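call fold(seq) -> C-alpha cells
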Amino acid sequence: MKKYKILVVAALALSLVASILGGCSPAEPATKLKVVTTTSLIAQIVERVGGNTVDVVNIIPPTQCPGHFDIKPGDIQKLADADLFLMHGWQGEKFSEELIASANNPRLTVVKLDVKVDDNTNWMTPPVQQAAVDKVANALSQVDAKNSAIYGKLAKVLKVMIGTKWTALTGRLDSANLENIKVICDEQQAGFVQWTGLNIIATFGRPESLTPEVLKELVDKGREEGVTLIIENLQSGHNSGAVIAEELSCKRITLSNFPGGFDNTETWEKAIDYNVNLILEAVVQ
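ret:
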C-alpha cells in the first residue's frame, strides 16, 4: 500500500510539473507581414529584405507590361488579405486604384515607391536598384516597426551585393567601348541602355505607335547615323523593332525590364547579367 501511495504522489507531481511547463512553452511564431507587389522588380527585393518575416505575393507576371494588366478576382482577394501594397507609382499602374477600392481593406497600407536617380527611373540599373532597396526597407519598417532592425540589416547586405555586381558589370561594359556602338531602342529600355554606355540615336514606342511614317523616320535616321543594333523590350512586344532591323540589315536583341522575364532570371542580378550578356554578344565584331 505504501508503494502505491508513493507512485500516486509521484504521478501527481509529474502532472503538476507538466502543466506548469506547458504554460511556459514558447509561443507560436508571429504572423508574417503580408505584402502584395505590382511587379517582380519589387517582389524580389521584398523577399530578400523581408527574409522570414514576410509573405510576398506578386500580381503582374514578369513577361507582361503593367500598362496592359487586367485585374482578376484573385488579385482583389490577395489585396483584401494583405497588410502592405507596394507599387512603383508608374502611369501604367492605373489599374491599382480600382484594385485597392475593390479590395475594401481598411487595414491596408499603400506605398508608391517612386524611385529616381539622376533622372533615371529604370529599376534594372544598379543605382536605381540600390535606391529601391532603401525605399522597400523603409516601407516594411513603416508597417512593421518591431522588425525594422532586420529590414535594415538585410537591406545593407543586399546593397553591398548590388554594388559588387555594379563594379563587375561596369568593368565589362567599359572594356567593350560601347559609346562607339549606335543603337535604336525601345523607349522602355532607354534608361538601361543609356546606363550601359551605348550611343542611343533614337527610340521607338509600342507596336501600335509604329505607323509607316514613324518607321520611315527611324529607318532614315538609322541609315544616316550608321546604327548597327536594334534593342527591343520583352514586355512591350518583342517584334516592335523587327522591321527597322530588317531595313537596316543590323542585329536585333530583346532585353527584359523585369526579373523572371526569361528563364533563370528571377533575381535582379541574374536578370541584369542576362541583359548585359546579350548586349556584349551582339556588339562583338
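Strands lie at 33-37, 54-58, 84-87, 109-112, 182-186, 199-204, 229-233, 251-255.
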